[in-house]
Amino acid sequence: MNTITGYTGLYGIVADPIKHSFSPMMHNTAFQYLGINDVYLAFEVKPEHLSDFITSAKILPIKGFNVSMPYKVDILPYLDELTLQAKLCQAVNTVKNKDGKLIGHISDGIGFMKACEEKGWQFQNQKVVVLGAGGAARAIVVALTQYAKEIVIYNRSHKDWIQQVQAQCDCPLVLKSLNDIQGLKEDLKDSYALIQTTNVGMAPHEEGCLIPDVSYLPQHIKVADIIYNPQETKLLKMAREKGLEYMNGEGMIVYQGAESFEFWTGQKMPIPQVKKV
Asked: Which HAMAP family match (predicted)?
């Protein structure tokens, strides 16, 4: 175990709520394993105090921090610089304090792609269906545009960010309504992967599922659900029963954390040790 001294650096995560987060366990494990004299804490900050937190981050100074709901977009006006990924997503989940200058980055999409890579999933020149168009979906779509030949996004409402991302990439992005169940079934027939990014099926409402029944899942398709509580959503249970390749959100959580860790420290997170924790 590291000994906290006057030289110990501080990192953290800001959100509301945040006490449930796995991030402190992940990053503190990595710091201790690598012998880095830093600690990582969870900061539960109310919306009216977000600006105070930013001031505190600069004064203390906090070396870097993660950002979770509901501040991934609200944090933008307080930042001095954004990485390309953060500009495309117009959202941030990682901030580095570089000599008082706050630099925003987003690691969700990269984390998802690394989790897929670990499973051997390859999206080059493939059609992909994405359910939902929130912040996580946006980060994943931005990452996928570098590989996929077409991304079909099913959502309940229009999202301006889809046109904004489309204007900056060559991969066609198509928005369709989640009410178009028959259209969804047709799109899945020739898709390489289905990626579920909404909170439908998350505990305590495990029975929720945007796919009506197992007949919607063709025999070849890969299924990802970024929910990790429960470990197996109703959608993933369908995928397992049909013998499909599938994954939940645990890998994405680990690898987005690893991307943040490297963005801050320049070192690789010790993934095997973090996964054990």
From this structure: Shikimate_DH_AroE
Task: Give mean pLDDT, residues 77-92.
Answer: 93
- Any domain includes 88: yes
Enter the pTM of the model. Answer: 0.88
Q: Which long-range contacts (CB under 8 A, 24 or more apart) does 209-217 make?
A: 209/233, 209/234, 209/235, 209/238, 210/131, 210/154, 210/178, 210/235, 211/184, 211/235, 211/238, 212/181, 213/238, 214/238, 214/241, 214/242, 215/185, 216/184, 216/185, 216/188, 217/188, 217/242, 217/244
Q: What is the CATH number of the domain that holds 211?
A: 3.40.50.720
pLDDT at 22: 86
Mean pLDDT of the chain, nearest integer: 95
**Catalytic sites, residue numbers:** 72
Residues of each annotated binding site for shikimate = 21-23, 68, 93, 108, 228, 256
- Number of structural domains in the chain: 2
Residue ranges for the known binding site are 21-23, 68, 93, 108, 132-136, 226, 228, 249, 256
- At 228 the pLDDT is 86
Annotated binding site for NADP(+): 132-136, 226, 249
Is residue 166 in a domain? yes
Segments forming the whole domain that contains residue 74: 9-106+252-276
Do residues 159 and 207 both lie within one domain? yes
